[in-house]
Structure prediction request, 319 residues.
Amino acid sequence: MWKAGSLVLLMMMTSTVSPAQDAADNAEKAIAAFEDVFGVTQGKRRNHTKGYCIEGEFRPVDATIRNYSTSSLFTGKSSVVARVSHKGGNNAAADDKFGHFGLAMEITTADGDLHIFNMNTEHFFPVPSPEAFTELMRAKATGKDAVAAFVAKSPELRAHKKYHAEIDKTLRPYEGATYNSINSFYLIDKTGQKSAIRFSFVPAGEHKIVLEPRQDFFLQNIQANLQAGEVAWNMIVTIANPDDPVNNPAALWTGEHHQITAAKFVVMSATTEADGQCDAINYDPLVLSDGFAPSEDRMLEARSLIYAIGVGKRLSEKD
Ligand code: HEM
Prediction:
């Protein structure tokens, strides 16, 4: 298994300047910026604060994915402890208004390997680097003028705003939304050959809103959908074309691509965080099963550091 932190350790051993120290500084600043923008809900995540747990099974679908990866995710049934959430640090985010969401999954394979997928519903990231994201959050904490100044100097953020202003804003429940990896990864085959990928989890059915929308109804909605039939997502893997920007999460991969429906995540139950097992999990995107590797996208390492600080803080605040 690829272990979170390995990248940072490697950088510390091979560099005379200290990118590891810079990354650690950025992580502290990123957490502080989230706390300044949203405030702190004691014992809760600083981002994606509102959410609940779902559990289920991860099942391989199209065996051609095994030509690209030796991961045991694709050879047998695995168990999943996942969390769905609203983006942002507002623990009272409204379920009855359009918003962006997250889906994070900790998967234990039949071989005992661990794998984390951690995605959101955006199509690409607003900025290309972790430092730029911290700067954007700082601007949000400072006020409107600072944000306007950031927008003026960031073509990526302008492109992100334009693209996401034009997407379908129909109200959907967590289970009716498509989640994207945003960052790229590598699949590794049995000869050691690497293929760059991105992936999405796409609802396998309609999974609509079946209850009267109100401030808090998403948990009851998925429970009603589970009663009525299957709730599941298909994992669609997109293999990179040679000219795709692998290390820039603010750049979309456009045009025709080879895609494989690699697996299906079937939900068995949904519970509050208090009743489920997801609350204490650190959904670190660098925890990867054998047969996967992180891309050189620096945001992955940054996320790993930030989430490690986040989990330490929130768990230490519990009664
Ligand atoms: C530098 C960029 C990013 C920063 C600073 C950041 C920051 C954070 C923070 C502070 C948390 C709370 C961690 C905790 O306390 O456990 C979090 C959680 C999360 N982030 Fe990010 N994030 C970044 C990029 C991304 C990207 C690219 C995605 C999606 C692909 C993403 C998806 C999520 C999700 C889904 C969660 C909640 C996971 C859960 O339910 O535990 N983040 N993020």
Observations:
- The chain is about 30% helix and 25% strand.
- The first helix runs from residue 6 to 14.
- Helices lie at 6-14, 19-38, 130-142, 144-153, 155-165, 218-228, 298-316.
